[in-house]
Structure formats: structure tokens, C-alpha cells
Write a structure and sequence with these properties.
Strands 1, 2, 3, 4, 5 and 10 form a six-stranded mixed beta sheet that branches. Strands 11-14-13-12 form a four-stranded mixed beta sheet, sandwiched between helices. Strand 8 and strand 9 form a beta hairpin. It has two domains: about 160 residues, Thiolase/Chalcone synthase (Peroxisomal Thiolase, Chain A, domain 1), CATH 3.40.47; about 160 residues, Thiolase/Chalcone synthase (Peroxisomal Thiolase, Chain A, domain 1), CATH 3.40.47.10. It is α+β, with helices and mostly antiparallel strands. It contains twelve helices and 14 strands.
């Protein structure tokens, strides 16, 4: 295995100090009823306690979310207060790439000496998304209302197209076969349910109780609600919404949160249950492709990153991605000459859903657990994001 330089000399991700909620599909759980920022802060407190990390260790907090929530103006300081810790911090947002961006931003704070233990807290609630009313002098109404989540899914102001149209256009460009896309979706569902049965996801996902403002139980989030096994027969029978895209070969909106910590090499021994496990940042690269071709952007980002750091797909022990469309995986496999069966072995966002902010955070946590189970190695994380952007990163687990 080749050796590559590291992005940060001081920074580590302490093993076993992370956790994620399950991601119930939108409108299917009590998460649709809560202030997601407040819930995320309280949930992080619960996860840190479960991982036996004293919240007093935390001295900085980086939030990542994409859907407006009540009191969002107060961002990280408010979420920190909800977890019972008064620390400074800030909020980042980069559509589907938010989880990875927030983690790198926290690492930069630690590397610069601004923090010793920085928390990364990502979350979103797509259920009942707020409706913003924006001044618009070009319209006779003078204001134009915009439903935050769904209008953005259906319209890219830079291209005029919808998200789903990027999958169809990319599928046509790469001459992707519908049967292969159905096979990918079927296989991804099998991987998820096999991982769930194996118990590896129990190291990642934390059941959480939801309370109302009076402190009374609203419900319990203990499953990725809305996910069910899919057969090839079912997938083949589904109507195409665009080229190679059906209801079964694309993800669904969901709600949830995910958190991890970033710290110095010296602090790992104080907060990790297994400080001998070393997790480091190797490389990160973003790429923007031509208009309307979002699913090809991740492969382009990964290849550029490999060119810069000298690694290849053969060096990767674990490969996981955010794949809102099964088309993404077919294009990546073709562009990188890689077998799509070798990636996403513990599940992926195509199956368990896409709450946006925490999607790549959960993806990273699952990947780190998989790498540890294999004895370490390089971990490749990548995905697409709104605006025809591809994001990618490499970590090393040893």
C-alpha cells in the first residue's frame, strides 16, 4: 500500500466518540414535530454520555445544516447550550457536502490551535420545511414565497433544471443501461439489510427518545423508517421518471442528526475508548462539472484528488459515497474502472435516506467502523452536491 502525506499534522478523529440517529423518512417519525437544532444539541449530549465522553472536554462546536430552523440565527452557540455546554462555534452549509465540509472545518480549527476538542454536529429536518418569503422587485407582487426544500429540489437557478434531470442527462451521456441501475439499487438494499443484521450499524446508530416542549414522550427514533427490501422484479416494473431513474433507484428525503469529534493526537488518549486506533485526514478535493451533470462530478473530484496525492482505487480499503441516484454509482464505476459491488458495504444514502446536513457525516462514521473491522487502511468518501459539485476525501485508519 502506498503512503501519502497528511492534510493536518496535529489532527485526529478519536475512534468511538461518534454517533448518529436513525434517518426516518420525512413525515414518518416524531422528528417532524421538533425544533431540529434543539433536538440535535440534546441528542449530541446523549451520544457523548453513551460514549463516556465528558461534554466538558468540548471547547468548540461546528454545526452543519441546510434547511432553516427556528432560531437558526443563533446557530452553534444555541446548539451548544442545548447540549449543556457553553462553547463558541459557527455554522457551515454546502448542500449535500455539508457533513464533510463541517468535519474539515473543525479539523482546521484544531490544527490552528483554536480548539483542542471540536465537536461536529450536523442535522436537518426535511419534514414540514419552512416557507421563506423573499423580497423580489422584479415581480409585481414585490415578494416571492419559496418552499425551501422542495423548490430547491425541483429548480436549479443556475441551469433551470431539476435534480432528477441531472441523473437522466448523465445517464444518457454515459450510455448507462437501465438494468444495471436496477441491479445497483437492488444490491445496495441487500447490503444495508445484511449490515443491519450483522450488528455493525449498532456501533453507529443510537436510538433516541423525542420529547415535546412539556417533556412528554412524542416517540422514539430507532429505525430508518421508510426503508424496505426491494426485489429486481419490483424495480424492473417501476416507471421511469427520467432516463434510468425510478422511485426505487433514487433516495428519499429524511430527518436526522450525526455527530463526531475532532481533536489533537495528545487528546485522543483521554477521550477515545480505543486510543490505539489512529484516524487521520489525508486529502480533500471538490470539483464542479458542466451544467446539469451532477452525478459525474464525484468521479471527477476523486480522480483529481488521486492525481494530487498519488493514490489509486487499488489503495482504498473502504469506499463509501453519498449516492442520491443509483446512476451515480454506475457512472463512478465506469469512469474509475471500479466494481460498484465493492463499495457501500454497510449501506448508503440511496437506501437509508438523505436529510442533507448529516448524510456524509453518517457515511464517514460507517466507513470508519468498517475500516476498523478490516484492520485499517485508506478510506475514500465522496458524493455529489447541489450545483453540479462533487466532493471527495481520503482518511487513513491505522
Amino acid at each position: 500500500m502506498k503512503e501519502a502525506d497528511f492534510m493536518f499534522s496535529k489532527v485526529r478523529i478519536p475512534y468511538g466518540t461518534w454517533g448518529s440517529s436513525y434517518f426516518p423518512a420525512w413525515q414518518m417519525s416524531a422528528l417532524a414535530e421538533v425544533n431540529i437544532g434543539q433536538f440535535a444539541g440534546e441528542a449530541m449530549n446523549r451520544i457523548l454520555a453513551k460514549r463516556k465522553v465528558a461534554k466538558g472536554r468540548l471547547d468548540y462546536l461546528v454545526l452543519g445544516s441546510t434547511v432553516p430552523w427556528h432560531w437558526k440565527f443563533w446557530n452553534a452557540p444555541l446548539a451548544a447550550s442545548c447540549m449543556g455546554r457553553r462553547v463558541p462555534g459557527f455554522h457551515v452549509e454546502s448542500a449535500c457536502a455539508t457533513g464533510l465540509l463541517a468535519t474539515v472545518a473543525a479539523a482546521a480549527e484544531v490544527e490552528a490551535g483554536s480548539a483542542e476538542v471540536a465537536g461536529v454536529l450536523t442535522f436537518d429536518r426535511t419534514s414540514d420545511s419552512p416557507v421563506g418569503v423573499f423580497p423580489e422587485r422584479r415581480a409585481y407582487q414585490r415578494t416571492v414565497p419559496l418552499a425551501d426544500v422542495w423548490d430547491n429540489f425541483g429548480f436549479d437557478p443556475a441551469t433551470g433544471g431539476a435534480m432528477i434531470a441531472t441523473a437522466g442527462l448523465a445517464a444518457r451521456k454515459y450510455k448507462i443501461d437501465r438494468r444495471e441501475v436496477d441491479e445497483i439499487a437492488c444490491f445496495r438494499h441487500q447490503q444495508y439489510f445484511e449490515a443491519k443484521a450483522s450488528g455493525i450499524l449498532d456501533k453507529v446508530l443510537v436510538p433516541l427518545d423525542i420529547l415535546n416542549v412539556q417533556g412528554r414522550p412524542l416517540g422514539r427514533v430507532d429505525d430508518d423508517l421508510g426503508v424496505r427490501p426491494l426485489s429486481m422484479t419490483e424495480l424492473r416494473a417501476m416507471r421511469e421518471l427520467d432516463t434510468c431513474v425510478t422511485g426505487g433507484t433514487q433516495t428519499h428525503a429524511s430527518d436526522g442528526m450525526a455527530t463526531l469529534l475532532v481533536t489533537t493526537k495528545e487528546k485522543v488518549s483521554e477521550i477515545s475508548p480505543k486510543p490505539e486506533i489512529d484516524i487521520r485526514f489525508v486529502a480533500k478535493f471538490d470539483m464542479r462539472t458542466s451544467p446539469g451533470l451532477m452525478p459525474e462530478a464525484p468521479a471527477m473530484a476523486v480522480q483529481k484528488m488521486f492525481d494530487r496525492c498519488g493514490l489509486t482505487m487499488d489503495d482504498m480499503a473502504v469506499v463509501k459515497n453519498h449516492n442520491p441516484f443509483a446512476v451515480n454509482d454506475a457512472i463512478f464505476a465506469q469512469a474509475m474502472d471500479y466494481d460498484w459491488r465493492q463499495m457501500n458495504k454497510t449501506g448508503c444514502s440511496l437506501v437509508w435516506g438523505h436529510p442533507q446536513g448529516p448524510t456524509l457525516t453518517r457515511t464517514m462514521i460507517e466507513a470508519f467502523e468498517e475500516a476498523v473491522s478490516l484492520g485499517g487502511g485508506y478510506v475514500l468518501i465522496f458524493g455529489c452536491a447541489a450545483g453540479d459539485v462533487g466532493t471527495s476525501a481520503i482518511f487513513k485508519v491505522s
